[in-house]
Amino acid sequence: MFKLTTKLAGVCSLLLVFVSLDIHADISFRSFVIATDKNNLPSVEGQIYIENNFKELELDLSSIKSSLLSDSNILSRYYSAAIKNNVSEMQSMSFVSDGSLSWMKEELKATPDKFQGFRNLEKVTLKNRFYWGGYTIWSVDWYVQRNKFAAKWFETTICIKAGDCYISNLLLNGSTESSIFSQAIIELSKSKKISTDLPVLPYSVNYSPQYGSQNKPFVVKYKINWFDKPFLISKTEKNASTEDSLLRLKDFFSAILNLKKLDSASSSAKIHQYDEVFKKYWESFSSSALLPVFKVKDGVVFHYPYNVFADFIKRGDVLRVFSTLDGGSEIYLVCILESEQQKSIIILDYSVVDKKFVQHSNNDFLGAIIATPNFGRSIQNLITERMGKEYKFE
Q1: C-alpha distances in angstroms, 365 versus 221, 329, 336?
Q2: Element at 91 (helix H, strand E)
Q3: What sign results for the dihedral spanned by CA atoms 324, 205, 290, 11?
Q4: How far apart are CA 362 and CA 10, in angstroms?
Q5: 104 by DSSP, 3-state: which?
Q6: What is each CA distance from 352 to 12, 150, 241, 292, 329, in whole angstroms?
Q7: Across the strands, what pairs with 332?
Q8: Cα 74 to Cα 248: distance, rounded to the nearest angstrom
Q9: Can you give the residue ranges of every domain in the chain?
Q10: CA-CA distance, 173 to 176, in Å (whole number)?
Q11: SS3 label, residue 22
Q12: 394 residues of the chain, pLDDT tens digit each
């Protein structure tokens, strides 16, 4: 069970567009705007598969004895068991292969009375149906005594075959993909505006469940602005530029690269140096914020405290800025830090208004997407494709 409480501040107004699919007559994907450029045109969009013209359905909360259960009937049986606090029956409906049953057992071990509050539940209404990989995600409304609205949730089911369906903890499993998808359906559910003329953006990155089918992914479409040639920053060489963001980047990285070398005995003095540099170039600097770095060789995103991030920069030889992604009041600089060991993709958020770098994006959802390995690999592939033999990641 997944509660609709996640708050994503600063995400642009979302637009919807419906596109018909041949693979299933009553399923289409909805596209919504995640970010816009300085001209208020979409620069990043999301696409989610959803059932067309879904008719609101109230679940039958009486006990269902049939062994053949459709995806909606399994929800009726599941909630019926929850109201009775019949946790053994609830466990029997939890999917094994994706870890949902193990998760359920651990939850009940930690909180034996986890479901006792469901005794007050009187009505459960299915409001919408989304599709992701082989899973079905249901938008659910809860009502307690006297038909009083209580909460909005998302439930997930998976069917191995007709009549053989289970409950999954897909949206609670902690994976990067599930986290991104969860945020996406929340944003889509909050949207009220509809459009039929969203532009086609040239690049895309897919997010699919870790288990099962890769069909019906959540797709992020985006556009980036390429420089004619990469902007170069090193200890010995710097390209000329008139763009504020690149000038500030040059000054920031030069300040880090040129800091005095201090031994481990002077760690407090080193931290003081780093503090001064970050406070000068970063908006509302916080020492507790983490900065993402995609290490190409490992295919993993590392989230570094600012002082570790600064040490990482100092070990680099060259920083190349290939492109920018426009997010309206913020732009994202797509950079590669090169060292003898490997190349790493760093995407820095820059405030056009304050002319400083940003630790916490005004667009939380876009910031979360950019910090995923999926997006890092997409950028790596685009640079490889664009630069050809001129630039290699190996």
Answers
A1: 14, 15, 23
A2: helix 87-92
A3: positive
A4: 5
A5: helix
A6: 16, 42, 16, 21, 5
A7: 325, 349
A8: 56
A9: 1-223, 225-390
A10: 9
A11: coil
A12: 544 433 333 333 333 333 333 334 488 888 899 999 988 899 999 999 999 888 999 998 886 665 556 777 899 999 999 999 999 999 999 999 999 999 999 999 999 999 999 999 999 999 999 999 999 999 999 999 888 999 999 999 999 888 889 999 999 988 999 999 999 998 887 764 445 467 889 999 999 999 988 899 999 999 999 998 899 887 676 566 667 888 888 889 888 877 766 555 467 877 888 899 999 999 988 989 899 999 998 899 999 999 999 989 888 888 999 999 999 889 999 999 998 888 999 999 999 999 999 998 889 999 999 999 999 999 999 999 988 776 777 6
Tell me, what DSSP letter sits at residue 94?
A: B
Give the total residue count for the chain.
Answer: 394
Identity of the amino acid at 323: S
Pair 216, 316: CB distance under 8 Å: no
Give the N- to C-terminal CA distance of the chain in Å, as an integer.
43
**From the CB of residue 389, how many other CB atoms can be counted at a distance below 10 Å?**
6
Torsion angle in degrees (nearest 10) through CA of 257, 262, 263, 269:
-120
* Rounded (10°) CA dihedral 102, 103, 107, 109: 20
Closest listed residue to residue 296, CA positions, set 236, 220, 375: 375
In the block, which residue shows the tokens 């760093």? 346
Classified as helix, coil or strand, 12 is coil
Helix (H) or strand (E) holding 326: strand 318-326
CB 149 within 8 A of CB 125: no
Instruction: Report helix, strand or coil for 47.
Output: strand
CA 327/CA 350 separation, integer angstroms: 10
Please give the sequence-ordered ranges of beta strands (E in DSSP) within 145-283, or none if there are none: 148-161, 164-168, 193-194, 203-207, 218-222, 225-234, 282-283
The rounded distance, in Å, linking the Cα atoms of 319 and 355 is 20
Question: φ and ψ at 176, to 5 degrees?
Answer: -60, -45
